[in-house]
Amino acid sequence: MTDELSHFNDEQRAHMVDVTKKSETQRRAIAETTLHMEEATLTRIKDGRIDKGDVLAVAQVAGIMATKKTSELIPMCHPIMTTKVNIMFTDDGKDHLTIVAEVVTIGKTGVEMEALTAVTVTALTVYDMCKAIDKKIVIGNTHLVEKTGGKSGKFRFDK
């Protein structure tokens, strides 16, 4: 871990990091979040019985779209051309839905923020589509699972 905060210049003012001299490499990030909901809500999602439509399909598209908008939402993020975005869902068969996003690019900066944005917006979309039947949905434990590529190398979140 480094003590340097790269988004501050010598005058301690915020700035976008200069990546001009960095080499383009393949960069990959995986992020994850979990939703806790009523068991009946998860059952209805899986059975396609939510009035607003196919929750997982809509949420998946929302996550992909959000990935492409990350630099518009987070001020110091560089616009990145992603080469792959994959949103995946798993559940525990009871009341937890896990969302995982994998984002890949060939570029000068990483895609961690894109992966985190993807899972967050995917989760918010699930919430939006289900809030009429379950207002107690909790979105939590959002974190970077893994990243590869770039100067800092590989990172893996150890549970």
From TrEMBL:
EC number in record: 4.6.1.17
Residue numbers binding substrate: M76, C77, H78, M113, E114
Catalysed reactions listed for this entry: (8S)-3',8-cyclo-7,8-dihydroguanosine 5'-triphosphate = cyclic pyranopterin phosphate + diphosphate
Keywords: Lyase, Molybdenum cofactor biosynthesis
Protein's UniProt keywords contain Nucleotide-binding: no
Known role: Catalyzes the conversion of (8S)-3',8-cyclo-7,8-dihydroguanosine 5'-triphosphate to cyclic pyranopterin monophosphate (cPMP).
Name of the protein described by the UniProt record: Cyclic pyranopterin monophosphate synthase
Taxon lineage: Bacteria, Bacillati, Bacillota, Bacilli, Bacillales
Protein's gene: moaC
